[in-house]
Amino acid sequence: MVGPSGSGKTTILRMIAGLTTPDSGSILLDGKEISGLPPERRGLGLVFQNYAVFPHLNVYDNVAFGLKLRKVSKRDTQGQVHDLLTRVGLLGYEKKYPHQLSGGEKQRVALARAVVPNPKVLLLDEPLSALDKKLREEMKFWLRSFQVDLGTTTIYVTHDQSEALSLSDQVLVLNAGRVEQVGSPQEIYESPASMFVADFMGLTNCFPGTAEATDGNQVQVRLTIGLNVTATMRHKPFEIGQPVNVFVKPEAISLTPKAAAPTKTVNSFEGSILQRSYEGALLRYKALVGEEQIDIYAINTSENRFNESSEVRICLAPEGVVVISADESERVVE
Q1: Which domain CATH number covers 231?
Q2: Residue 2 falls within a domain, yes or no?
Q3: CA dist., res. 251 & res. 299, Å (int)
Q4: pTM for the complete prediction?
Q5: How far is the C-alpha of 159 from the C-alpha of 7, rounded, in Å?
């Protein structure tokens, strides 16, 4: 579940966990209503963003805590804790205390403790938000591998779009308590169902226009800035004359010198570079086309390096141009 602060992500997670009582509706697990069950009888595992490990217990006792409450035998407890510490890469850390661990190590202890009772569903509430950027990126790959290895259905709450796309099989986008769209990461990013989803998921270039013609799975749009663009249609056809908004993905834009012979005739425009930002593997440009600015991301290679004020040709890949009805009431929720 992804969405901005206040959209209802954590509230939904807390209702599933039994920590917040819903005003109406049902919560079903394996087809059975669980709203009336206390948290400890729902068979769920929960991990918070602030680690929530017991500071007075070492790693072994933190992970074994739930098993001891259930009066699991010492031998079985040792076996299960050993297995989980192996899975989370903390074997040999049994006698260490939380203050001796890094943020990523603490969060792995919290995960091990949450899954040791073999929960039916694992609930994760922004578990990586307290980590620094480098560790957060490393933990994303580790967490996804851990979840696949564990084979446990997991509901992950985040406000970070890249986490939602990289960690999920299905993404639910929330906005002010309502579901904007549900789909695979690819569907959410490449075929957003509403203006909100397109903007929130990072499609930064937005231009109003009017649908002028359709041809197969493509639609031609006349932008209010005076340019014609061709886009691949998604969801449903557009009516001729229908007001639309056009989003262009920054990575779907290519640059060539203005003097070079155009290799494409569709969505090819002349412009100039206003700003360039060096971001290591990426170069980020602000370009001017007519009187409008466009954000462009390019791989940092010699042929993609342009100086500010360079005259360029800007090409938009039709599959990277997203057209959405200007009428928000037509958003698609599947």
Answers
A1: 2.40.50.100
A2: no
A3: 9
A4: 0.81
A5: 9
Q: Say whether both 210 and 185 belong to one domain.
A: no
Please tell me the number of Cα atoms within 13 Å of 308 on its side-chain side.
6
- Report the CATH number at residue 150: 3.40.50.300
Residue 264 confidence (pLDDT): 67
What confidence tier does 207 reach under pLDDT thresholds 50, 70, 90? confident
Fill in the DSSP letter of residue 99: G
239 and 273 co-located in one domain: yes
Residue 98 near residue 126, CB atoms below 8 Å? no
210 is in which domain, residue-wise?
Answer: 205-328
Q: Is 15 part of a structural domain of the chain?
A: yes
**CB atoms inside a 10 Å sphere around CB 121:** 17
Angle (nearest 5°) at CA 176 between 49 and 21: 65
Residue 39 scores a pLDDT above 80: yes
Over residues 25-44, the mean pLDDT reads: 92
Separation of alpha carbons 88 and 127, rounded Å: 15
Residue 198 lies in a domain: no
Structure tokens at 23: 């005003």
183 shares its domain with 274: no
Shared-domain flag, residues 164 and 215: no
Rounded mean pLDDT, 114-126: 88
User: Do 143 and 71 fall within a single domain?
Assistant: yes
8 Å CB contact between 323 and 228? no
Flag whether 59 is in a domain.
yes
Do 177 and 37 share a structural domain?
Answer: yes
Distance (Å, whole) CA 63 – CA 54: 10
Residue 154 has pLDDT above 60, yes or no: yes
Give Cβ neighbours of residue 46 (< 8 Å, ≥ 6 apart): 17, 114, 122, 123, 125
What is d(CA 259, CA 268) in angstroms, rounded to the nearest whole number?
13
- On the question of pLDDT at 329 being above 60, the answer is no
- Asked if residue 328 has pLDDT above 70, the reply is no
